[in-house]
Amino acid sequence: MSHSAIRSPSLLAIDTATEQCSVALLHQGAELSRGVQTPRGHADLVLPMVQELMAEAGLSFTQLDAIAFGRGPGGFTGVRIAIGVAQGLAYAADLPLLPVSNLAAVAQQGARLVSIGAQLLVCMDARMGEVYSGLFKLDSDGLVTTASAEQVCPPERIDVATSSLSMGLGTGFRAYPLLKQRYAELPLKEDALPHAADIARLAVREWHAGLRVSPADAAPVYLRDQVVHVKSSV
Length: 234
What we know:
Blueprint: E1 11-15, E2 20-27, E3 30-37, H1 42-57, E4 66-70, H2 76-93, E5 97-100, H3 102-108, E6 119-125, E7 131-138, E8 144-146, E9 151-153, E10 167-169, H4 172-175, H5 177-182, E11 188-189, H6 196-208, H7 225-232
Parallel strand pairs: 1-4, 4-5, 6-10, 10-11
Antiparallel strand pairs: 1-2, 2-3, 6-7, 7-8, 7-9
Helix pairs in contact: 1-2, 3-6
């Protein structure tokens, strides 16, 4: 069966991992999305945005195939909000969940700007003098795939050769001049934040690959778990 003959799932996507709070809906080839940048208040904003999108599309939650969410890395509170909302909606409508990397969602924003096979470096400001980083490659389907393990580290430890890269994306380049100088030869998208629209696009591939999880099994990826455990034990 050709890929074009495979039914595209109806997906709701939610992301609150950064200062950008966003939701998106994919249904029968159409895409709707909402997003707002704010330092706080995501918990109060996200559900009304979801309800607005569902009403605009004329859909009920039971007509969805799954709910995707940004699983991190990102702010602890923000990642928890997205998972909590996704879990609640999924339990109510008996739907599976599709966790998607927030770093991959940022990398996906560069997909239209580079060629197939290009590598993209994502560096997001993680505060505390560190960045969340990951290396991604653009596949022939127009979606990015992971090319290295995601990590959290000081910016001086990012040592991917410029010659192997086509683009850099993320707020880490803006927050840390060292990174901006090191990759000055690259096109940089320093204001890139994850958006639910890109999470939804990546989630379609996860859906077709069968990478669905039950609401009970949805888990965040903080990359700073060890730091949290140390702090909570003292």
